[in-house]
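pls design
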């Protein structure tokens, strides 16, 4: 199943906040099992969101955001597509 959001436009200075809020919210909503929710706040826009509170998950999200921000700074911005994919492992048949 594929869900696509309409294009979201923002200033380069807001990219980090926008992606953090979106990606952390999506991952939190999809979290399997126990997670310790953590409140988070964007630095440049007045938005609060909930994140998983898992250091490994937070680190991976921040790594990807940093890569996109570096690309945007190097190329002068423009448009970028962001895709989030979730995969389910097939259960072994008895």
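designed seq:
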């Amino acid at each position: 199943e594929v869900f696509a959001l309409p294009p979201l436009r923002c200033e380069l200075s807001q990219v980090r906040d926008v992606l953090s809020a979106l990606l952390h919210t999506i991952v939190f909503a999809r979290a399997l099992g126990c997670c310790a929710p953590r409140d988070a706040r964007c630095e440049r826009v007045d938005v609060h969101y909930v994140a998983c509170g898992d250091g490994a998950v937070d680190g991976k999200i921040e790594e990807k955001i940093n890569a996109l921000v570096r690309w945007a700074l190097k190329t002068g911005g423009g448009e970028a597509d962001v895709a989030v994919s979730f995969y389910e492992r097939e259960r072994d048949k008895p």
